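2.7 Reproducibility. Because tokenized structures are sensitive to small changes in the input, we list the exact sequence used for RNase III domain-containing protein, including any N-terminal residues retained from the expression construct. No trimming or masking was applied before prediction.
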Amino acid sequence: MQRHGKETMKYGAVLNRFLPGILENEEATKTTSQDDISQNVEEVQKIIGYDFNDRNLLRQAFTHTSYHKDCISYERLEYVGDSVLNFMITKEHFSKYPDLPPGLLSPLRAANVDTEKLARAAVKHSFHKYLQHGKPILTRRIQSFINVIPEYPLHSHGLIDAPKMLADVVESTIGAVFIDSNSSIDTTWEVAKILLEPIITPEMLETNPVKKLYETCQKHKLKVRVVDMWSHDGSFEVFVDDQMRGKGMCHVKKEIALNRAANKAYNEVIGMLSVGNINI
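Resulting structure tokens (single pass, no recycling of outputs):
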């Protein structure tokens, strides 16, 4: 027992010797962290071309719920930004395309505010580097998304998995600007335009792969059959006139697996029709 007491005193002495340095390093880490956050705010303001009156709004816009249990996350700002962005895009399209019917205005708006479009905007402006979160898997998902973007310069139209958190932070930033600018639509639109460039126009709009496949096959009286095996192995198979023309896989999202299968089948059908010199 006496020896145990001596060892305790010995380790206690060692701890007392190093404790001031440990505490000093902890304070330095906190200071560095605050300095980093302040620098991030400055950099993001330069990116979006807007100086905040309340910088806490911008910090909040880049804070995910997983950052730590007591954090104020971007969820409320995202809610505002989502509504404001949809309104601004609707207003812009209504003015810019006076002859475009609602049936074409709706998909045009969707293409400019969907998850992939906004996630691309986040990557283009390096928002992912400033995002505060506690999910290591998200970093890997973002990198996978960045790696595949060059294959689809403008939009994949449902063929790639875009991390929703990237889209969220664009919406929360727009929401933060809207709140900070005293609900100024004009000021918020100036920021949104910078983030969303290039804005998709009617000429740039493409049809969803599933719709393209069905429209083409219907035109040429080809029978389409889709086999759903997603719950089994994350895949879909598409048969055209009883021949398998496309298989797509995506374990994360069912819709993406279907789109990939339909896209492969569509390209096969187009190739087949071209070989037969059939007017597509």
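The domain at 61-204 is CATH 1.10.1520.10 (Ribonuclease iii, N-terminal Endonuclease Domain; Chain A).
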